[in-house]
Amino acid sequence: MSGGDFDAVARAVFAGNRYMVLGTAGADGWPWTTPVWYAREGYEELYWVSKPGARHSRNVAARPQVSIVVFDSQVPVGSAAAVYMEAVAQELTGAELERGLDVFGRESAAQGLSVWTLTDVSGGARHRLYCATVTEHWVLDPRDERVPVSPA
């Protein structure tokens, strides 16, 4: 399988799945994973909404380096494909928040969901908008070896 084929696998995984598993660690180093619905801008920026008091949100504030995996859990054993990522995450503010809301809103609308507004993720609101900027993507080849991909 060529590098382009692996890139196509990565694009297909992103196209077919709406949840990512976010891996974080707190200041104490203890790991935590959680599934979150996400919107994306290309393949380098992944956005989600969470409560700032949620464990993964507190972990991002303490230690912004995260891991992410997107995969289809409904396929038969042995036929799964996944995109693994390393990223740096943050709660968005200012102009980044407005840009992120645009991306998140477009994907929410495309999925038939309510579109989040600035009022929903700022001030006294319960939620905040977060973004993970991906620094590396990879898939596993048939020998279970890590293969870097550029799904763009």
Secondary structure: elements and pairs:
Layout: H1 3-16, E1 19-25, E2 31-37, E3 39-41, E4 45-50, H2 55-62, E5 65-71, E6 82-91, H3 94-110, E7 128-140, E8 146-148
Antiparallel strand pairs: 1-2, 1-5, 3-4, 4-7, 5-6, 6-7, 7-8
Give descriptors for this structure.
single chain, 8 strands, eight-stranded antiparallel sheet, 152 residues, Pnp Oxidase, Chain A, alpha+beta
The number of domains is: 1
Helix fraction by DSSP (H/I, runs of at least 4)? 25-40%
Number of helices: 3
* CATH fold descriptor: Pnp Oxidase, Chain A
Instruction: Specify the oligomeric state.
Output: single chain
Structural class: alpha+beta
The 3D shape can be described as globular
Order of helices and strands: HEEEEHEEHEE
Per CATH, the class reads Mainly Beta
CATH architecture: Roll
Superfamily at the CATH H level? Electron Transport, Fmn-binding Protein, Chain A
Strand element count: 8
What's the Cα radius of gyration? 16 Å
- The fraction of residues assigned to DSSP E strands is 35-45%
What is the terminal separation in angstroms? 18 Å
